[in-house]
Write a structure and sequence with these properties.
The chain is α+β, with helices and mostly antiparallel strands and 628 residues long. The protein folds into two domains: 371 residues, Chondroitin AC/alginate lyase (Glycosyltransferase), CATH 1.50.10; 237 residues, Beta-galactosidase, Chain A, domain 5 (Distorted Sandwich). Helix content is 39%, strand content 19%.
Amino acid sequence: MLQINALGQHTLERHLSGAVLTNTINRIDDWRLEKKNEWNKAIQALSILEKSHIIKVAEDANSFTWPSLLATKYLEYKTDGNRTRYEDDINTRRSIVSHLVIGELVEGKGRFIPQIINGLWLMMEESTWVSPAHIVVQKSGIGLPDPLDDYIDLGAGRVAADLAMVYLLLGDELNQISPMITKKLKDVLQSRIINPYLARDDFWWMALQSNNMVNNWNIWINTNVLKVALLVEEDASRLKMIIQKLAHSADKFIDSYAEDGACEEGPSYWLHAGGELGQMLLWLEDVSDGKVTFKEEHKLFNIGNYILNSHIYRNRYINFADAEAIQVPYPAKIWAYGTLYNDDNLKAYASYLTTLKSPSMSLGTVQDFLMHASIYSELSNHRKDFIAPQFHFYESLGQATMRSLNKKGNLFLATIGSNNGVSHNHNDVGSYMLYLDSTPVLIDVGVGTYTKETFSRNRYTLWNMQSQWHNLPVINGIQQKDGRSYHAEDVEYITNNETAQYRVNVAKAYPKEAAVQSWMRTIKMHAGNNEIRVEEQYQLEEFKKPQSISFISKIKPQLLKDGFFLQVDNGKKVFINFERETVTFSLETKEIEDPRLIKVWGGMLYKMNVLIKSMELRNQVIYKIIAN
């Protein structure tokens, strides 16, 4: 998790003080009416094709039979560590309600209202909106939710924001059936979200107590609480307290970021971290009628721009930590930063991403749909030729990217420095990944299906979390160790028009048993001739076992006399060549059983172990990576 900076910058609190906040609260009723009209107008302006698709999805949902949410399924996380079976049921229920609500907003004939009421009633009758994997923080511990110990987690926040939007947009239609529906809606939002948010400071994600840590939970939940409060809360004094507390808490999230804006949780979690921050900023600017603006806060822009700098090609992204290698970030969250900072390149990137989504609009949640509908025309019609940097460096993470520009194929390489105590950490300090065009050549395996083990003390017994299954050395038979104290040193990135060079000392990422004083990895790319040169220069305290370097790929390596090559689907090859007779090779195969990993990499992975022959305490190994 991210460590909070000792000295706060008070970014949101500075912008939400005094008369600005008072005037914002005083105009809240007018704003709600404006928001309702704005959303309805945007929905009606959607294309006929989009509307037809939305209505067809709603018609399918209208005959849905609602699943029961069984206590025994909720308890499965406690009994066998499985969280997905209950979450599948709950997510299906959420999606069906969203499909029905969106269909009614588009069609407006009332034919989906009865089934919407069924879904809403079931959701309001649920014992909790908190995931079984998150209920562990309650005082009674893991198991069924304690009705006297209210908690707000990610799921509760998302559900509440959707229900608040239903309350605003369909409240009149629901009241025609029975006013008890909206009455219950408002009551449940108060009791499950607003009241506990105001009453408690001990939710860890709020970061309001000493030594709290903070990650995406902070801004994701705070953003959803903001939406609920702005759309539902009628007491001006309570609304003011919520916004003040929320600004103080969310500032802890902003403070935890370096000025360069790098997201240590990776691009997948950026959607729920920086991406949610952008939504919060946009809502605050909107509700204040432009009196609040963040255009001078360059750090916030850097947080937003991170997702573009982590893009490889089409739907491929840097996937250090628990990030997904294949994804299409939600375009509206990127467009938000383009709007906030009048950045045309971010808008072009967001517009480009719509070409990768089919259908283009997300119907999974009401708020995602409204987010897109509000900018549908602009997003669809904007230019799509964005510019990604050829070379980029995030000093705070030691994350460097370098791209070649060559007719034989474009090489892309990304590195990670940092430490092994980051949020969603893998033991991967100094590792790198390599792509040829859109094809992964040397990979970061990433995370499998989440289970109880994923976030437990047993996390690093999982093979894909271990450094030996990253593109890293195994030193004296020892792997890297987890914890913030196991870190990179001497990280350096130097670029010019033709070359980029990255250097990192990974020795301190290994425990003392590795007996290593220094292991300096230097990676240099020559963009013009599509060549990468890697030096592994090390100094040992003693020799225990031969040193080795792991190379992980979904492509089966083919051995050569002094190296190996990997052939991609289009016939191009990537050669990895060593100095003659300095190393030997052995190949391991890993059959993949986890469905999440199979979806990304297929059923088999390969690890080429390159064993260094030298027994000297000081040594250097050089190899070249060449695309041909």
